[in-house]
């Protein structure tokens, strides 16, 4: 089929509409309703522009807009060109449609938590979708590189939205990996392709001149481009930015993991395989021991999806478990793109929308749980299914789809890839059977790390909850560490000076809030003793000792006598666990290395609900003990005047919902909400429930009628025009 090129400005309009909306959003910062109205109008307009091109693209047309040459070249100049072909439409149609759903969810989530800097959030979100459209419609490697880098810049404010030290660190790591790491590799690969072929334009089936180029240099260019784009797709060992980015608000996590960022990486690898080198050349480029470029790519995907699934088993923090699940699931796409054949490529491309629908559902559910109950840890979710039946029901459906259960989106894409691997192993190379084994193993691991969440939510009661993880040995870690209560980093004076530590952090070094009531009460008493001792010693005046809250030498004898100490009174970890009853969970202490992560993802917002209204905010130069005491007094004052927004716990902000707690079931257990009551809006706002059920329904429909949804038809057109005739559709 020969593409019919139509000169049309609609690809450019799809890029610009949300950029213009970002300007209007900033201009409307004084009126939240108008500001968010612009967001919804822009999302609907963008989707309408993209959808208007879909029928013609399915008939073989290509919409093109060229701004002319903007870089000189050795031969022909390099143009800034936007092309809406079948492959670009797959990504653009998906991203623009999901932006509508995510916009509604963002309104409910950001308002529900009274998040700060909402204008900046919605503006950055709009700019991110502009750059995503640019990646989808880029007509050559230079254009996609420009938008690839702009996407990193546009999403940085979203990753660092909370403005905490942890958020800024995650943002810097995100830029270091995706912009200065992946972007540099993409630029180097682009330059090498231009030197070898004299062209960087995307050509269905690959640039012909590359087939005649030096094989070693061609292989180098392929690896530079594949790894450069793969950084955003989270391939190992270049994946560390992705779990760290979970510090962002949950809608941002959905953007990062399902809509724009990681999908742009997977889409970039797709462009390299299908439109720069072509599937045939990728299979023919050989390395020693019979490994072709395609098999190298698939092996990277197989190793990543297996390792990420194993790591997900040990994560107790729900969003971090989902983050490693994303790393695993994106590697299915990378693996499938390396399978030479019709089935493998169709399965890889179909997993782009399948993963988007399922993973966005999962992140929306995690965000809804956090917004309503401030619960982030799986070990605190026993029985939460009766409190949030619709949310956890949607989570269950999406989890089953991720594991590849039939009649859901994940099954269809994985089935195509399995058939592609078997056919490649039987007809071309037996090494492909290893890839089939990795796919099957990963499916089992998907069940292993999603089932505990479902079981905990629906089949465990709060009072009979077993907090042990699925894997109770070093590979999986323990949700409650056997390490002594302090490891040399978390002395009690850190709590007084940190300004964000919750009372239950006194005996640890930043562990999560929401421990058992008896532990929290004991730690709070310890903190009060520390503050009282500091005040008694210096009369409340600042001094070098008071600046640190309390003299460290006094801590073991004054407040931590229950900890093992040596003859000098210094706390020493007791590693003798011979008397431990292993039927009971060990005392939990944050180590940062096991299932317990250091802080909840998007709860540690120092600018949380009511923060600005809290009276007499202490300045930075107040001593640690005095600062903690002043904040406690301020909280009591606000509580006395009935201020519902008073900040009780700086780590989370006050919970204005009916549960009035921070993580885990409240004192009386979860409130039981029947399904009909949940549908009437008792579970949470419909601004969040509506998007959850919508995206879940799309995941079901893609599994039941994939061709009728348009995605499979579009993907078949893409693959048919990229493969040589001898390996066309069976």
TrEMBL record:
InterPro entries: CPA3_Na-H_Antiporter_A, ND/Mrp_TM, Proton_antipo_N. Residues 485-669 are annotated as: Disordered. It comes from the Archaea. Residues 498-510 have a biased composition (Low complexity). It is found in: Membrane. It comes from Halorubrum hochstenium ATCC 700873. GO terms for cellular component: membrane. Keywords: Membrane, Transmembrane, Transmembrane helix. This is Monovalent cation/H+ antiporter subunit D. Residues 77-122 form the NADH-Ubiquinone oxidoreductase (complex I) chain 5 N-terminal domain. It is a multi-pass membrane protein. Residues 515-538, 548-568 have a biased composition (Acidic residues). The chain crosses the membrane at residues 12-30, 37-58, 86-109, 121-139, 145-162, 174-197, 217-235, 247-269, 289-313, 322-343, 390-411, 431-451. Residues 138-432 form the NADH:quinone oxidoreductase/Mrp antiporter transmembrane domain. Residues 569-591, 638-662 have a biased composition (Basic and acidic residues). Pfam families: Proton_antipo_M, Proton_antipo_N.
């Amino acid at each position: 089929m020969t593409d019919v090129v139509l000169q049309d400005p609609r690809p450019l309009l799809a890029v610009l509409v949300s950029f213009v909306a970002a300007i209007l959003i900033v201009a409307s910062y004084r009126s939240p309703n108008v500001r968010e109205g612009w967001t919804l109008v822009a999302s609907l307009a963008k989707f309408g522009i993209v959808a208007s091109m879909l029928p013609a693209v399915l008939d073989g047309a290509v919409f093109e807009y060229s701004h002319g040459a903007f870089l000189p070249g050795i031969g022909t100049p390099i143009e800034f060109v936007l092309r809406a072909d079948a492959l670009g439409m797959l990504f653009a149609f998906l991203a623009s449609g999901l932006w509508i759903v995510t916009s509604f969810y963002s309104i409910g989530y950001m308002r529900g938590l009274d998040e700060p800097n909402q204008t900046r959030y919605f503006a950055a979100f709009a700019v991110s979708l502009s750059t995503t459209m640019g990646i989808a419609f880029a007509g050559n490697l230079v254009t996609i590189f420009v938008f690839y880098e702009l996407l990193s810049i546009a999403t940085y404010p979203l990753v660092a939205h909370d403005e905490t030290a942890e958020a800024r660190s995650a943002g810097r790591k995100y830029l270091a990996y995706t912009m200065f790491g992946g972007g540099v590799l993409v630029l180097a690969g682009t330059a090498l392709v231009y030197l070898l072929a004299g062209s960087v334009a995307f050509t269905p089936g690959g640039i012909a001149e590359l087939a005649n180029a030096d094989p070693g240099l061609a292989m180098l260019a392929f690896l530079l481009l594949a790894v450069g784009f793969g950084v955003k797709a989270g391939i190992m060992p270049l994946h560390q930015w992705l779990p760290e980015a979970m510090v962002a608000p949950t809608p941002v996590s959905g953007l990062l993991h399902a809509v724009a960022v990681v999908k742009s990486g997977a889409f970039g690898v797709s462009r390299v395989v299908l439109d720069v080198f072509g599937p045939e050349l990728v299979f023919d480029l050989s390395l020693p021991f019979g490994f072709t470029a395609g098999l190298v790519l698939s092996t990277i995907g197989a190793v990543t999806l297996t390792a990420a699934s194993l790591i997900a088993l040990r994560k107790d923090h729900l969003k971090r478990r989902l983050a490693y699940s994303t790393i695993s699931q994106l590697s299915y796409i990378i693996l499938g793109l390396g399978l030479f054949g019709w089935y493998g490529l169709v399965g890889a491309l179909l997993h782009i929308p399948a993963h988007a629908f399922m993973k966005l559902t999962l992140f929306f559910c995690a965000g809804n749980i956090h917004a309503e109950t401030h619960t982030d840890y799986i070990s605190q979710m026993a029985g939460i299914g009766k409190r949030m039946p619709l949310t956890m029901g949607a989570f269950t459906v999406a989890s089953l789809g991720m594991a590849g259960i039939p009649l859901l989106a994940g099954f269809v894409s994985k089935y195509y890839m399995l058939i592609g691997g078997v056919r490649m192993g039987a007809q071309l190379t037996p090494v492909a059977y290893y890839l089939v084994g990795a796919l099957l193993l990963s499916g089992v691991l998907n069940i292993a790390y999603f089932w505990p969440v479902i079981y905990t939510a629906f089949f465990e009661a709060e009072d009979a909850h077993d907090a042990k993880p699925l894997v109770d040995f070093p590979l999986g870690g323990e949700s409650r560490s056997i390490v002594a209560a302090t490891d040399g980093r978390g002395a009690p004076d850190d709590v007084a000076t940190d300004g964000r530590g919750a009372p239950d952090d006194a005996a640890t070094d930043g562990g999560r809030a929401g421990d058992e009531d008896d532990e929290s009460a004991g730690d709070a008493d310890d903190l009060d003793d520390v503050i009282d001792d500091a005040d008694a010693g210096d009369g409340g005046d600042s001094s070098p000792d008071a600046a640190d809250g309390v003299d460290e030498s006094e801590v073991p004898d004054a407040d931590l006598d229950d900890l093992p100490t040596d003859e000098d009174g210094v706390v020493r970890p007791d590693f003798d666990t011979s008397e431990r009853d292993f039927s009971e969970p060990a005392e939990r202490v944050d180590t940062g290395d096991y299932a317990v992560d250091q802080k909840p993802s998007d709860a540690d917002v120092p600018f949380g609900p009511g923060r600005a209204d809290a009276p007499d905010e202490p300045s930075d130069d107040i001593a640690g003990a005095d600062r903690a005491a002043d904040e406690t007094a301020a909280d009591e004052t606000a509580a006395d005047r009935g201020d519902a927004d008073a900040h009780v716990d700086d780590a989370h902000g006050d919970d204005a919902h009916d549960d009035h707690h921070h993580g885990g079931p409240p004192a009386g257990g979860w409130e039981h909400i029947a399904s009909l009551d949940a549908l009437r809006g008792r579970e949470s706002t419909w601004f969040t429930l509506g998007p959850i059920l919508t995206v879940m329904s799309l995941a079901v429909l893609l599994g039941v009628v994939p061709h009728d949804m348009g995605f499979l038809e579009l993907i078949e057109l893409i693959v048919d025009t990229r493969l040589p005739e001898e390996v066309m559709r069976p």
